[in-house]
Amino acid sequence: MPHSLRCRVDRTLVLIAFFVLACSALSVRPAWAATSFAQFTEGNVSNTTPPIPLGNLFGYDGSTAGNASLGTINGTGFGDPIPANFFFLNLPGLPADLQGLQNATMRMTASTTAQVVTGFGDTVGSQLFDGEGDLESVIQFTRNTPAAEGNGSRTNLLTINFTAQLSGTLGGETASLTADTLTGYSITYTSDFLSFSPNEQGSFNIALTSWQTLSVDQNIAGSGPLSINDATQNFNIATAAGAGSFAGGPSVSIPEPSSCVLAILGLGLLGVLGRRRLSA
């Protein structure tokens, strides 16, 4: 092939490759501004043995000074999977099988070496979950069956690694686990179905209701409210019910299958072009 013709062909291939890559980038839809994109409530599984009802499926253990733990419980320990009703919110272009209720399981573990501090005239207790205790601070929502879209296992609806603050009114039966990257907490989101920027702004809130302090002597649930253990300076052992929501920043997106195909095609053209230049 004459050199001038080869150069014209190369220039044409470059233009086509970059055009295809640009189209693939444009086909990734921005999903939302910094608003809630997912929420959950505890599920109710009646066909298990034994049945798992709605109830206190979160637990807190502060019986050891310098190490407090929080997480889902279902009879064996922190991090037990519990049934969860999971929903994606405010996501234009979400595939049909990911819309509406996602039957899923949730597992959560969190730990801290920090003590409870009080404020507002000793009426509110607050504890930083810094992830420095025995348990990793992570929340995972796993779809019970794989979805048609996505990548990886196609079951990871959302995973959150975090630091957060647990706080509540002393003498009450509610508490909340909250975090916001704008105020210094760390949140890392991953999902088989969403894309997140490494520097994505994020926040979440998990409301813990029906907080029931356990009787340490008899190890049974009582009607005791949120309280502090004087010996450990943690909250007293308790169980609670939970529900929550998760928010993200403006650069989160839903990759479309067509964008992946276009990207591969564009990179393939650039690879062909590179081999042609080497052979020349």
Structure notes:
This protein has 280 residues and is of the alpha+beta class. Helix content is 17%, strand content 40%. The chain is built from two helices and 17 strands. It has helices at 3-26, 257-279, and strands at 29-30, 35-42, 58-64, 67-72, 82-88, 102-112, 117-119, 124-129, 138-143, 156-162, 164-169, 175-180, 187-190, 202-215, 220-224, 238-248, 253-254. Strand 14 and strand 15 form a beta hairpin. The radius of gyration is 25 Å and the shape is globular. It starts with a helix and ends with a helix.
Secondary structure blueprint with pairings:
Elements lengths: L2 H24 L2 E2 L4 E8 L15 E7 L2 E6 L9 E7 L13 E11 L4 E3 L4 E6 L8 E6 L12 E7 L1 E6 L5 E6 L6 E4 L11 E14 L4 E5 L13 E11 L4 E2 L2 H23 L1
Antiparallel strand pairs: 1-17, 2-5, 2-16, 3-4, 3-16, 4-6, 5-6, 6-9, 7-8, 8-11, 9-10, 10-13, 11-12, 12-14, 14-15, 14-16
Helix pairs in contact: 1-2
